[in-house]
Amino acid sequence: HIRWKAFCEAILETLLHVASRTALILGSRTAALPHTRPIAFRLTTGEASFERLFATKAVQPTYEGPTGITTVLQQRLTEAGVVTANLTALSPFYVQSEPNPSAVIALVEAIDKAYEWTTDLAPLLEKQAEVTHATEQAAAQASELRAAITSLEEQYDRDHGVAPRPAEQSSAADALPDSSEVVADLEAFFRELR
């Protein structure tokens, strides 16, 4: 955690040693997304070839502020002339698993599709089922968490153009608490977990 520069130089040295001029950096971070919807991705690169490969629009790497090692590594490799992209899976902030198996599966599937590979996902699928079950149990026991998940599902569906089910249309807004209440309840829930 305190030797990022040395880490980045070691990766660069290895890439140059094996004559690789391309790097795909994989990562994961939490986001306000429900576990009941597909894992979202963020592709960060200045290279159009990666956009075509992953069939998604890339975000240009222009972020300034607090950052993680993947961003620092991407910048260092790009400076050295390595064609680089950062593929990040966005997973639900409330899922208690590190790493999140759903995020790992989504990354592997995206890579398999892009490079026409096939990877055995059986061990990851087992872990995913365990984590999903634990998350569902937690949601069943904590109404605040269930309400937050419902709110995230509705937001996800609105953002992706999915129409709400007829029964949900009339009562969904009335049934949900204010977002500040949900956040406060979630914070209290996570404090209790510790």
Question: Care to describe what's here?
Answer:
- It is a single chain.
- The mean pLDDT is 87.
- The protein has a 3-stranded mixed β-sheet, with helices on both faces.
- It is globular, with a radius of gyration of 19 Å.
- It has 8 helices and 3 strands.
- The chain has helices spanning 4-17, 48-54, 69-79, 101-115, 122-141, 143-159, 166-175, 179-193; strands at 22-31, 40-45, 83-92.
- It has 194 residues and is α+β, with helices and mostly antiparallel strands.
Which features does this protein show?
three-stranded mixed β-sheet; 194 residues
**Amount of beta strand:** 5-15%
Q: Measured on Cα atoms, how large is the radius of gyration?
A: 19 Å
What is the string of SSEs from the N terminus onward?
HEEHHEHHHHH
Specify the biggest β-sheet.
3 strands, mixed
Low-confidence stretches: none
Number of helices: 8
Terminal Cα span: 24 Å
Q: Kindly state the number of beta strands.
A: 3
Overall pLDDT? 87
Helix content: 55-70%
| Overall morphology | globular
Helices and strands in order:
Blueprint: H1 4-17, E1 22-31, E2 40-45, H2 48-54, H3 69-79, E3 83-92, H4 101-115, H5 122-141, H6 143-159, H7 166-175, H8 179-193
Parallel strand pairs: 1-3
Antiparallel strand pairs: 2-3
Concise structural overview:
The protein has helices at residues 4-17, 48-54, 69-79, 101-115, 122-141, 143-159, 166-175, 179-193; strands at 22-31, 40-45, 83-92. Helix content is 56%, strand content 13%.
